[in-house]
Design goal:
Blueprint: E1 3-7, E2 16-22, E3 25-31, H1 34-44, E4 48-51, H2 65-72, H3 83-101, E5 106-108, H4 111-119, H5 124-133, H6 144-160, E6 164-167, E7 175-178, H7 194-200
Helix pairs in contact: 4-6, 5-6
Amino acid sequence: MTVIGLDLAGLPSKPTGFASLLNRKFKTGLVYSDEEILDPCLRKRPALVAIDAPLGPPLSGNLRQADRLLIGRGFRVFPLTFASMKELTSRGIHIAGELRENDIKIIEVHPRTSGKIFFGTSERRAWLSNLGQKRWIVSQKMSEHEADAVMAALTAWLHLRGKTEEVGMAAEGTIVIPRWPLRALGRGRPFDRGSILQRQGRPPAFV
């Protein structure tokens, strides 16, 4: 069962990270145009596509409820009123709409938040190293956009297994993040998640 992660760029002139995940193996690359993004999704017919881009505007102000909730938990989220974020939101809504029209399910994700929850760090090289130690097949040499797409795909994989939570309200768009603990990723070195739990001020929510 294939899932796809997209680290979407706001403009076609900038690289979008693309990652597909099947049988614990990630394949990544950089794409640019809407066609380059959509064509492999339509060919592969993934069970789920996870998009790193806002898929809806705030009902008021410059932050959605989902954004405020993540900030409240100690994660970094940019206001949607930034010019670059407006471009990203517009393109995200368009790409998501095209996928939905082709009966492909989508979710919005935030890879840096997922990475911090998974591994206790925003360092992308640490994400890849930890995944390799847990017997996931993933290159250790890739762009930051591809690494973010890997984290998006991994969040999609967990979502299909009921190991995520959605924050925010549907009217603005929810963000899917991992739930605790993360034994589903496999064996290997334990996650350093103490600092994140302390910052969130809550115990593990998933058993």
